[in-house]
């Protein structure tokens, strides 16, 4: 049984060795899909026996799906990790014990993902552990074609693992806010696409498969996205911090819930409004407005036709 781990990187010298070490006893091959790092990332990867491949960055989904095309045809299972994540020993042991005995009808396995923020494990707010599908049969899964909050999707049955992986980013708060500013632009693109339909809508949203990811995406697209911008950010924060007891996570948790549960969500809404204002004051469609305001070239990944671009004009 060949299990390949794909790790996406850009300047991840602070995290990569820890990530690789967590899967060294599990993986047949470790592939680092890098977008031209300028620090010691590549040297660290090679020193730990990983195979390095490089590709220009568009977004997480495109990078990962490209990485899949570079794998050995003999690969049986694929595990996706970000460089700032690592598997707990319990999850590694569970995968080693269960994977050889899983029947061919199963396409993927879910596990829990927890997050730390400024050194503290977030336990409240109703957001963790997130159930994520990260392990799947090669050739039967790929990443949703989205700009933000992408998930692995498979067509066949899945199973649930009890172990967890940890998302533990060691960068500064300044780095974190800059990263989430970029994330907010990409999530604004996905929200605008729900409204204007300028690119294919790829989603795991479902009320029927019983999986957390499908339910959360359904609520986000069918309920949250239809609420008034700005107000929905405050309502979401109130739900997490008060109703789901996020305040019990201490000072670090308060910072996390305020920044990730309110500031980030409000920033996404503000960027959506900014794109709409630009469309209202310039003779252009949504794709051009996104490029001018958010500096994201949507057309490079999913070109809009001339007919569609005319439809998006206000």
How does this model look, in words?
By secondary structure, the protein is α/β, with parallel strands linked by helices. It has two domains: 3-167, Spore Coat Polysaccharide Biosynthesis Protein SpsA, Chain A (Alpha-Beta Complex), CATH 3.90.550; 173-311, no CATH class. The chain contains eleven helices and eleven strands. The strands form two sheets. Strands 1, 2, 3, 4, 5, 6, 7, 8 and 11 form a nine-stranded mixed β-sheet that branches. Strands 9-10 form a two-stranded antiparallel ribbon. Strand 2, helix 2 and strand 3 (51-54) form a beta-alpha-beta unit. Helix 5 (173-196) packs across helix 8 (250-281) and helix 7 (231-243) packs antiparallel against helix 8 (250-281). The longest helix is centred in the C-terminal third of the chain and has 32 residues, at 250-281. The chain is globular and about 55 Å long. 34% of the residues are buried. Keywords: Transferase.
Set down the secondary structure blueprint:
Elements lengths: L2 E7 L6 H6 L7 E6 L6 H7 L3 E4 L5 H9 L8 E6 L2 E3 L1 H10 L9 E10 L2 E2 L8 E8 L3 E3 L8 E3 L3 E10 L5 H24 L15 H11 L8 H13 L6 H32 L4 H9 L3 H4 L4 H6 L3
Parallel strand pairs: 1-2, 1-4, 2-3, 6-11
Antiparallel strand pairs: 4-8, 5-11, 6-7, 6-8, 9-10
Helix pairs in contact: 5-8, 7-8, 8-9
